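User: what does the whole thing look like in 3D?
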Amino acid sequence: MIDKHATPPAGDKIAVIIPARNEAASIPSVIRDVREHLPHALIVIVDDDSRDGTAEAAETFPQVTVLRSPICLGIGGAVQLGIKYALSLGIARFVRMDGDGQHHAGHAVAMLANLGPRTLVQGSRSPQQFAATSNWVRKFGSLYFQMLFRFWTSRRIPDPTSGFMCFGKDIAAKFATSYPTDFPEIESLVLLIRSGHAIIPVTVPMEARRAGSSSIGPMRGLVYMLSVSLAFFSSFLKRNPYGIAHAS
Amino acid sequence: MHLESIQPSARIFFGLCSLALLAIILSMIRKNAIKEKYALLWLPLGFGFMAMSLFPDLLLEFSARVHLHYMTVAVLVVIMVFTNIQLYFTIGMSQLREDVKKLSQEIALLRIKADQAATETVHRSGPEAGRSDPAPGWVPAGPGIAGAAAAPRPNLPANAP
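Assistant: Here's the predicted 3D structure for the full assembly of 409 residues, as structure tokens:
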């Protein structure tokens, strides 16, 4: 189904940005996975002030760039840091995946194939998959956000909370100037849609976490839903940092 | 409740509290522990409290002037004033957090550039100085890379030693 060794077009460099906070147990296998499926990609691990030696575990790999933040930036700040770094190297295409082994680099190849200008390709779990890998808070939250997207942006976003995505230079430059800090996925999608970008969902299987604990427990899940809802609606109030949609 | 009914004991307590507040504010300003703009906010408040405890008639005069005759209304006004001050602080804190985030990202970027420059220097001055084959950068010369044959050395700065 997926050609593992599809050759990327010449001069079209890929950066795989992996934010990691206390993922020392899973980060080596994630790096090996990316190496295998995207052998030409620049791997950027953003260590978000981990306490368990995540950065050291990643640095044992010779061709991996490990960015260390002196303080905890939050997931959004970490992703943004990785994007800033890759942009400074002139990277053209960006893959963002988790450091806990949920996302498989092999699927990023299929996602990259769908990448066009002004598009963000989001790796989405199928509903069955989602049910298998999530607790009830996440399931409810996901349904709720799907509904928000359908009503307010008339787009179908099958897995709005997924952090598995790829995008090009245009979107990366926008993320570098402004990216939400705590729960960035949904808010950034809304802002992108409103500034005329397309979100292309590609169905990919995802694993349950290999190690560590999710950043979203039941109580935090509630906070997540409330603050993302606020971010969702406030995005209609404030000036869109990603610009206004062009009629096309 | 009328303000004429302030008890002497309450006056003393209020007076001591405002004295302590004023002392803390002044010592903070002296030690440069609070920024001028916050000192400008707190100093009039401290002196205001002090004046009111020294001369309670001022309070009565003030309440008569602004037609504040009921305690509930006075409390509401006080709460609103302090809520506004807190809002002002929240704005400052959000701005600070954004600033700290940007600075930390900048530090991480500088750190990696410094590390890469250091390893590059080691390579250049080491025994292998002047070798022509590219050291393993981020692009391994894998069989599939299209641009690799034409350009053996990845033309990215900094990262490839």
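In plain terms: The CA atoms of residues 53 and 141 of chain B lie 81 Å apart. The radius of gyration of chain B is 33 Å.
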